[in-house]
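Session log. Operator J.P. requested a structure for one protein chain; no other inputs attached. Running the standard single-chain path with token output.
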Amino acid sequence: MPKQVIEQEKNWYVIHTYSGYEDAVAKNLKQRIESLGMEDKIFNVIVPKEKKIKIKNGKRKTIEEKIYPGYVLVEMIVTDASWYVVRNTPRVTGFLGAGTTPIPVSKHDIDDLMKRMEVGEPEFTIDFEVGAAVKITDGPFKGFEGRVSEIDQARGKIKVLVNMFGRDTPVELDSLQIKKLS
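Structure written below.
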């Protein structure tokens, strides 16, 4: 008697991996699909990622960040053989689901995720206004407090007046280097 309830339809499933090994698992699984001739049962392997803007060494960088660390998506038809191929890929700890039966991800959730991954360059919005009290969270003035004096929306830069040696000194910062004081 087969271990799986065999559904002959293609669905997306979530597999759990050791965190930090998602890309390695995806690559390894793709090689296994090819070498074991499972292209007719396992169609797609994705590590969901999105682009984010981060500040590194005072410069804006666009990085790709995993949306769900520790998880990989697999589009497949679940059979005993296809389940075995995925489950026995090194660093795969299992399928998301109850026991040995994987639960498919809803079409709606997959569509939302695909849209999120397709976004080109991330947009940034400056959520500050002139006169707002802020604290500097990054860079050489980290820890200082000041008031927003100018906002350059196009460049994502903000001038903050910081009190140094008894006088207000304008400091140009990236909008990601400050936070509002509550």
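Operator note: The first helix runs from residue 22 to 35.
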